Amino acid sequence: MYNRSLWEDLKSCKVPLQFIVGEKDVKFKNIAQKMRDTMCQSTETTNVPEIVEIPYSGHAAHIENPLTAISAISRFIREVEFKS
Fold first, then answer.
1. Is 17:50 a contact under the CB 8 Å cutoff?
2. How far apart are CA 29 and CA 27, in angstroms?
3. pLDDT per position in the chain (84 positions), as tens?
């Protein structure tokens, strides 16, 4: 089965996004930044995703530092609800 790349679809994404990455997870920090850069190239949307780095954590940031991850997610949800 062929899985097509969704990178181009990011340019037309109209929903608020938050990328959560671990401070020590260099690979996924770079991927999140690349995704954000791709979205910012679009003229179709003003949606600029937020990138949150969870301190003292790697790839499993939500497990390694759950309270900080929960706090970031909760804040993001409140902001999205406020803008709606």
1. yes
2. 6
3. 678 888 888 888 888 999 999 999 999 999 999 999 999 887 776 778 999 999 999 999 999 999 999 999 999 999 999 987
